Amino acid sequence: xxxxxxxxxxxxxxxxxxxxxxxxxxxxxxxxxxxxxxxxxxxxxxxxxxxxxxxxxxxxxxxxxxxxxxxxxxxxxxxxxxxxxxxxxxxxxxxxxxxxxxxxxxxxxxxxxxxxxxxxxxxxxxxxxxxxxxxxxxxxxxxxxxxxxxxxxxxxxxxxxxxxxxxxxxxxxxxxxxxxxxxxxxxxxxxxxxxxxxxxxxxxxxxxxxxxxxxxxxxxxxxxxxxxxxxxxxxxxxxxxxxxxxxxxxxxxxxxxxxxxxxxxxxxxxxxxxxxxxxxxxxxxxxxxxxxxxxxxxxxxxxxxxxxxxxxxxxxxxxxxxxxxxxxxxxxxxxxxxxxxxxxxxxxxxx
Length: 351
Prior knowledge:
This protein has helices spanning 22-31, 50-56, 80-92, 111-116, 138-142, 150-159, 168-179, 193-204, 223-226, 274-288, 342-349; strands at residues 9-16, 38-43, 68-71, 100-104, 127-137, 182-186, 212-215, 261-268, 292-298, 304-311, 314-322, 330-337. By secondary structure, it is an alpha/beta fold. It is globular, with a radius of gyration of 20 Å.
């Protein structure tokens, strides 16, 4: 596939809140990528690289092992110098560099510091940000998880001391929308038309003029829609600056509420009944206010591993590939706001 006229390799930054559907979007993108050789950089919040493992299980010839790189030393927007820049240089220095680079940020990452990193001298002449795509969980947004009118909330808060500050989750959501060139509203097959229209209206009020809004269901979107947009986002930082001030002049020293979240891993044995397992997960999620739960389960008598993805009480499962040499065990990552009762959650998850 041809690259930019400038000779720079295009890179797409895919951001979005926890469980919005970023990994699903990328899986479908790989399956419909127009013949491009795509390298993936996956940044996760947690001890187990679930998203990278899901993508390695895609079974596609263009989903080669060495084209998937996982950054697990912390949020990508906080480790630009230590992790991201060296990783980009390794990709760019390959004898056969990729046609396109796709970067999946963690749900807690701010896109702006990452986009600014493309102006670092080590890479700025060799790669460009094709676009920033923010994935929004359509049903969650329709349920009012985030304020649609920030100014009205600020005015109400100023007038009433009993109203608390905005949560870090809402600030992350707003800044991810502020940086977007395209917003993909996911899971629209689970929504009524009126709800979809309401979400689109809400998002239009929080994005820059000209930002494209697209619907996506389980079938996803193709590379022809998502790639080759040529926004060169790193040259337009003034127009996509953060709504909230999270950092100083040095992008390596910013704060955006990581301490408000925590994550931990749970390892269990095989499960006997997938339906009962999903019901137990839903009960634990509701009982402990878990934001996100994801991982793999070993099902007795089944050679394939069961992928588990949960956002709130909504749980999706599917079999993706055999365990192979991996241990036959159930591995789950639990993500929530600080203060989770790890012992109680672990005990409740056990069969």
